Amino acid sequence: MILKTLFSQLLTRPPTNRFPAKYMPKSVLGFLGRVKEGKAELVPPVPVPPRFRGKIAYSREKCIGCQLCIRVCPAKVIEFLPEVKKIRMHVARCTFCAQCVDACPVGALSESPEFLLSDTDRRSPALTVE
Amino acid sequence: MAEAQKVYEIPIGPIHPALKEPIRFTFQVEGERIRGVDVRPGFAHRGIEFMGLKRNLIQVLYLSERICGICSISHPIAITLAVERAAGIEVPPRAQYLRVIFSELERIHSHLLWAGVAAHELGFDTLLHLTWKVREEVLDVLEELSGNRIDYSIPIYGGVRRDIAPEQYPKVEAMIRHYRGLLEELLDAFLRDPSVAARTRGVGVLTAEEADSLCAVGPTARASGLAKDVRQDRPYLVYGELGVRAITPRDWGLEPRGDVYDKAVVRLLEIGQSLDLIEKCLHEMPDGEITAFPKIPALLAFLKKAEGEGLGWHEAPRGEVIHYIRLEAGVEEPVAWKVKAPTYSNLMSWVPMFRDQEVADIPIIAASIDPCMCCMDRVHVVQDGSPSTLLKEELLRLSRAKTERVLQGLSRVGGGA
Q1: Which terminal Cβ of chain B has fewer Cβ within 10 Å, N or C?
Q2: Which CATH architecture has domain B48-341?
Q3: Does the beta-carbon distance from B59 to A72 stay under 8 Å?
Q4: How confident is the model at residue B416, as a pLDDT?
Q5: Is the C-alpha dihedral spanning B147, B153, B158, B159 positive or negative?
Q6: Distance of CA A88 to the CA centre of its chain
């Protein structure tokens, strides 16, 4: 049985997705730079399901500064900005439980499908939501 | 050199390539045979219960989820049951069914993970890659239903956070059909394979008497022939209505011997049992509310007023997990939180399992109880900067002293009530 499975795999495509490129580039950062310049093509990641819990999206206009999200956040991601009564989120700490989304009384927070969040600086703009 | 030393000590761990998580074994070895073993846990202690006492109950829920990545629904289910008993919260029936569905999905992925690890420890890497390839299907379904591959964040006090939408039913049913077809192939690859049987038959034997006296739980106990399953013995959620029966190697037509092979039998058959349970839940699940507290501020306010103590138990993939919690009115944080993970109960069964085995069988015997150190480590004793041993009398004295301290605290807070 196992031999049958093994031989049939010779004829099928591999189940893994070759992300970010079909063959490992010499330098990933260099490859990503070439992708930005349009010289190389990125193999897209596996698509996420509709209600995926990715990076939290924040609508600054809707936020009323009630701090309920800060009370329920288990990872202490959210910082309150008292002078403007808004919040700032440090995504590097986020555990993606989306409890803040459930808690927000005005729907200012939502789950976005974005999940490629690696960075070398935890305070970079890509990892800060405000 | 007339009287040469015959028994040597081999230390393995705390950090060792053969171990997935830190723990230290000291084996007494005579030639290739293991004559005795000393197990020393405590290297993955993170003080998680102490952290829980400094957070409000909703934060503690997600902290409990991170006790273990693989049992990431077992701990939240146990803690929500404990808090619901303490605070007297009624869970809507649909939410109970949904919790069962998620916990059985978790059991499937955990047992497949174990099967792959076991194949790898035997040097059967082809089987490892095959099992982990098929494991992706259930992870995809979990991601579809919950939004996360692991750490699903599904249970909350009073219900669950996400419903299964009508358009998601076919996906779950397709997964069940897929695994039904695959299960026969997996059973074939593991249980009817002569090389797997040669490496696992008679290896790491835990007799029924030893399992009983050492209080082994979960598949470790069931492989020895003890029909012991929390879902059957002390039903919770809707497990009583679903009629769960503990699976032992007798279901595979074999008399239980308690070796590694029997543990594989139990775990693989439980995948089929979980598929049946999920299918039954999908059919029988009533419509209705999925949580008793749709608004989070209302839940926080209710929990702040709640007072009492509660115990929550759940049959995790590795065995019985218990959470104890005590709440006091006026404080958001729990006053006491105690977690007992299944590996804590199974740890001592290593000692008889290792006796008179070969050194080469250490990895598979260690893996056969599906250990999870990060779940289990609750204490690490450090004195004068170096680890030391606490004997039973000393522990007893400390425990009694703590009871007295707690009682004094109680009379001060409760005014002798």
Answers
A1: N
A2: Orthogonal Bundle (1.10)
A3: yes
A4: 40
A5: positive
A6: 17
